[in-house]
């Protein structure tokens, strides 16, 4: 069930609000993407806010890394910690005073109170609940404290937290994607300000969204159960609700949520380890339920095209499932769509990161352009840059070191004779190899396999004729000679054994 809210461009302000406690999750990137597209489509502002109230788990430099990743995907912010803006600071620990004032407002209005219960008492409550097989919750002991006593204990320096009065009731709200949602809220009085004076996630989330004038909250569906807390806080402040738009969960198999213990849960796996182009990953994240009008599954949309066709009312409710085949499909489409300059820079950056031993002579624009031309014209299946650093196309930036792989399939005498004859050919052509095979009375396919493995250290790969065309004759001879020379020791051993 969908509903269409009236959207005024001047009112649209959305935010992506990650916690700087680790690598950026794939779901986080998808949330950023949908916030970005929504803002650009409706002429509004896209904001990055860093929610770092879990100080113990905060990783220095993590927030800056998030901004770098978003830039790499073209998801440029209008306001952020690095960019600044009218509604900053955009890091929650720098807004501590605001939360304290907001909490005091709720205390004064009777919607919240100071709780002086010790951690030891709270632990006893938890253990008693578990023993009775009940859901642990606070027993509201400090709710009945008189204002005078609460103020006096605060002046005396007694440690406390601030709790929000949360009575059991039915809460209803509409979501752009999931339609009407009805929940029974029954969690007891929850903490909004911790003993260190910092807010809890739920409290800071609501306060910041209000003060940053967030019009639409776009986030993952895992936050739907938290909405009653947020809505009751809005009610207590007498604030208007933002419009909610929750995105389906990202799952590994259609059922199980993508675990943070899995490398494929994080953006860096796709960008750094696998080397998929940014546009491939963005299209991959849009494929389920899309959010694009008349979405074509075999097309790679540019960011500009995504913005033009974006329609929040087309987002589906079916959970997103990671799928290797779909990812590789978008990898191929993105590679074909990318400009030569973009590919050149992407390949150079990837090779330098993954193969630091590669010389600058193999990173020149002229050589990289030849690599791109080869892949574009000859390889329909090329999908990610890891294929040139550790996959089937690693031969672009590395020569075979020895002929050991050849000896797993052929005897050393046959291999050395084939290589000697091919190296002596005046011209390296497939026809020449067939001639060598006929003269030696061996099969032409075996002869081609030996030459291919000597050139790229693999029995599978591009046709030998394409390799001859890509490499210069001198490079092909150098590669075959290197393998041929490495076989001398095995040839000597064979002579000794036969003798």
TrEMBL record:
GO cellular component, one term: mitochondrion
GO BP terms in the entry: glutamyl-tRNA aminoacylation
Compartment(s) where it occurs, according to its Swiss-Prot or TrEMBL record: Mitochondrion
EC numbers: 6.1.1.17, 6.1.1.24
Pfam families xrefs: tRNA-synt_1c
UniProt entry keywords in alphabetical sequence: Aminoacyl-tRNA synthetase, ATP-binding, Ligase, Nucleotide-binding, Protein biosynthesis
Superkingdom of source: Eukaryota
GO function term, MF aspect, one: tRNA binding
Record's catalysed reaction(s): tRNA(Glx) + L-glutamate + ATP = L-glutamyl-tRNA(Glx) + AMP + diphosphate; tRNA(Gln) + L-glutamate + ATP = L-glutamyl-tRNA(Gln) + AMP + diphosphate; tRNA(Glu) + L-glutamate + ATP = L-glutamyl-tRNA(Glu) + AMP + diphosphate
Every Glutamyl/glutaminyl-tRNA synthetase class Ib catalytic domain range: 11-327
HAMAP family, sorted: Glu_tRNA_synth_type1
Family affiliation: Belongs to the class-I aminoacyl-tRNA synthetase family. Glutamate--tRNA ligase type 1 subfamily.
Name of the protein: Nondiscriminating glutamyl-tRNA synthetase EARS2, mitochondrial
Species per Swiss-Prot/TrEMBL record: Panagrolaimus superbus
Lineage of origin: Eukaryota, Metazoa, Ecdysozoa, Nematoda, Chromadorea
